[in-house]
Amino acid sequence: MKLNFDNPYAKLGDAFSAKMSPRPLPNPRMVSINRLGADLIGLDPDALSSDAALQFFSGAEMIDGADPLAMVYAGHQFGGYSPRLGDGRGLLLGQVRGAEDKLWDLHLKGAGPTPFCRGADGRAVLRSSIREYLASEALHHLGIPTTRALCLIGSDEPVMREKLETAAGLIRLSESHVRFGTFEYFSYTDQHDQLKQLADYVLEIHYPDLASDPSPYDRMLMEVAGRTAEMIAQWQAFGFAHGVMNTDNMSILGQTFDYGPYGFMESFDPGYICNHSDPGGRYAFNQQPNIGLWNCLALAHALKPLILPGTIEHMRGYYQTRFFERYHGLMNGKLGLGDVQDGDPELVDRLLTLMEDHRLDYTIFFRGLSDPASRAAQNTTAFKDWYAAYDTRLALEQTTPEQRLHSMQARNPKYILRNYLVQTAIEQAEQGDFAEVDRLLILLQNPFDDQPDMQAYAAEPPDWGRHLEVSCSS
Q: For residue 190, with 0-12 CB atoms within 10 Å meaning exposed, 13-18 middle and 19 or more buried, which class applies?
């Protein structure tokens, strides 16, 4: 198995990472492979089924060009600052040139203890690895910026969390593993030379068009804030809750990063908390836009040694503008409307209030919005009044009903990764049956398409699956 390694992050020096090898997973077995992920890094998908791939990705044998290291960073976790975190259970195996010479980080999550693991075992468990493996691909195919997944490896090594589980390894693909918290670490330890070095690295690798700007660090901050705002606007439009929006879980590229206790909205509840470890609701669904801004402000303060006075306030307004423009545009698209006009945001807000009052399933309702049968089911006076206002607004559009139906179905998924679907796949996998993991992976690659043999996966959750609790434990 050959990969085209090019490792610029390793060249930054010892201040940025600790070079080390993974602790191999005992008795590894390939649980699932993502052929689309292999394509990204120029790897023959069939090679993922080879023993060489299993040995490398389980940490047993390194291949030529790999340069494994654990990255150091800090972060605000639930609002409190942790001055030194770092890769406690993951290693950047190396950076690989893939299609169109694009650089991808190849990251093993569950690689064993590192200098940053703070006394923990450095392992990931099968349960959480399946959750991230499926979620990252699900969001990608919804069009939401995210890390990707290459393969999932199981092991019989026992790991104690809330109960005894088994270890696993997830190979994550990302355009970058630089986090907001990476900048915080160097800023708040007064390593300002390294702070600038990191910023120059991000500009060179990820934002080369900004590097020659007279104020490149200010421009970089604005671009990161804008991308973050638009990503969170997409979360809100698709009903996705991340659950742990710490600054060490925020990507410098504005991509969804580090999946833990996430959840897709089912019965619409703006205060939805998907993380059992967040009883105060800091990261509740309706708090995500504000937390995104809070995190961007934390990044901005970390960059103060490099940016001009006034940039932080400018960034605040820019984030809010980018968020609302993107969010309102997405919600209009879900309703089959074109450009946002006066009154459109209020029309959306009225609908969301009705959905909350009637505890309607977020995904199913929007998918069926253009179906007359869906209207007939909502026969309260309040809903009839809303539909009348909606029809008045639709009359201003220049599209046919057929065009509108096609457009709405391309913006409202039929299939999402509901928690009970993931839980079913996990329970079967823990018994050695991985077929459901692969079935969901394939299903979610086409979330907007009718898949006649998969209708059951588009239904509301059964009673047992409505109130599943997911925590930060992994």
A: exposed
Task: For residues 306 and 168, give the distance between their C-alpha atoms in angstroms, rounded to a whole number.
Answer: 40
At what angle are helices 288-302 and 311-334 packed, to 10 degrees? 150
d(CA 299, CA 184): 7
- In Å, what is the CA distance from 212 to each residue of 203, 208, 215, 304? 9, 8, 8, 20
Query: How many CB atoms neighbour CB 120 within 10 A?
Result: 11
**Distance, CA of 129 to CA of 157 (rounded, Å):** 14
Alpha carbon distance 49, 463 (integer Å): 38
Q: Of 267, 277, 259, which is closest to residue 422 (Cα–Cα)?
A: 259
pTM for the whole structure = 0.97
**Which 8-state DSSP code applies to residue 375?**
H
- As a whole number of angstroms, the distance between CA 366 and CA 336 comes to 10
What lies within 8 Å, CB to CB, of 377 at 6+ separation is none
Residues carrying an active site annotation: 248
Q: Consecutive 10-residue runs of the chain (474 residues): their mean pLDDT?
A: 94 97 96 96 94 96 96 97 94 95 97 90 95 98 98 96 94 98 98 98 97 96 98 98 98 96 96 94 97 98 97 97 98 97 98 97 95 84 96 95 95 97 96 97 97 95 88 64
Instruction: Tell me the one-letter amino acid at 128.
Output: S
pLDDT in the model for residue 468: 85
- Tally Cβ neighbours within 10 Å of residue 46: 11
